[in-house]
Amino acid sequence: MPRKNQESKTSNLQSKSKNKADLNKTKSKTASKGLYSYHLSDILYIFSKGKERDFFVEQLSILLLSGMDLLASLMSIRDEMKSTYMKNALSIVVEGVENGASLWQSLERANILNPHFISLVKIGEKSGKLIDNLKVISLQYQKDKMFQSKVLSAVIYPAIVLGLTFVVATVSVVFILPRISLTFGRMNLDLNILTKTLMAVGDFVSAHGIIAIPSFLILTVLMIYFIFFFSKTKFIGQWILMILPGIKRMILEVELSRFGYVVGTLLDSGVPIVDVLSFLSSVSSYEAYKKFYRYLKERVENGNSFKKAFSSYKHVDRLLPLSFQNLIITAEQGGNLSLSLKKVGEIYEEKLDVTTKNMSVILEPILLIIVWLGVVLVALAVIMPIYTMIGNVDTLSGSNTNSSTVETRNEEETPILQDAPDSEQTTNDGSTQADSESTEQLTDTKRLTILETSTGYLNVRSSPMGEVIGEVYPGEIYEYTEEQSGWYKIVVSDELSGWVSSEYVSLL
Hints:
Number of helices: 18
Number of domains: 3
Oligomer: single chain
Strand content: 5-15%
Mean pLDDT: 75
Order of helices and strands: HHHHHHHHHHHHHHHHHHEEEEEEE
Largest sheet: 5 strands, antiparallel
């Protein structure tokens, strides 16, 4: 008899080993032919992965509830799948179940569901609540997508506005600033600090833009990735989000809604509270809440109530409002925790909907102000030097106009003053000299005008190169009676006549 049992045990081990080898072989074969062989259906699967996964979970729970056995349900769902990737993945699950493996093990090998959902399938298989847990998984996927869509709807408008602002700023920096910098650099203007900064940016981009701009973009993308997405450092980004007023409220409502729904639904399905808290910590998106849920699990596992766990956790009020804590404590003591939490989850889901709508309304004017300030700063940096240049041009133009007016006026007034002594000389009988002369005599008269000199006057000499006997002034007009070796004899008055140099006179 022992020998027979030993042979039976050995046969079972060999059978399991063979089944495992066959499963691995099938998985390897499927992977080489299907999972890594991409067709159009595989590309479509990338964009519809969530829908096909939800369809699989939902259909599996419906078919099992209708009385169909597990293997037939999996094969039926596999035949309905459109993508090659999903068909091959379900083939791995079917092969695993046919060879005696549990559903959660087969799903784990096929990598269809996330690990925390696979753990829920495992709990359902052990407790006989597989159908209920599959419903929970399907609804949880829908809730997660709903939470993501609400958060996305709140940030998509700011993202579009900031993205377009960045594109416009980049185009301005690459194409406009270097030209402005070059133009202002040629002018001797007293520039303000804003314009100098703008010119410095333009000069830098003009000299190093090919390297600087791509480097800036790469560093920005890497910084965002390491702050918000990299598993070891994303707690930094989560901490930043948790201190922003509007974002903090939205994250709080998402987590409270998830807490109420997950804990309430799973407790109602008969899942132990320790497993519920373990699952809750795995589906949470934020490290602060993950840490808190793990702490709750440890305390409850050690026999403590929620009230004691809340009171012993530092800064618990930042994660769960006091009203939410009191509700959980009261519901735990009254024995209706699951029902109360599901109701609270629905309430906070409605609050989340209102918050996301308000976020869009609040962010819109803030973003407009930010964009407006950027435009105003650039406009002031460009326009102020232009106004300064126009002012300088107007000043110079006015100065030149005034100078020309004064010179023209002097030119018009000077001949009148100069002609007066000559043209208005009177005779003893009261008539002018012009009136006493005949037209024939005026035609024969030879006249000259005195030019500018360095001294402001011109000496009249008794003879060429002789002694000085008088002075005449620039602009005055005189008759000359004689010319000799570059000297002219002029009639200064009835009593005085003398010689002046031809260098400082002009004949009329």
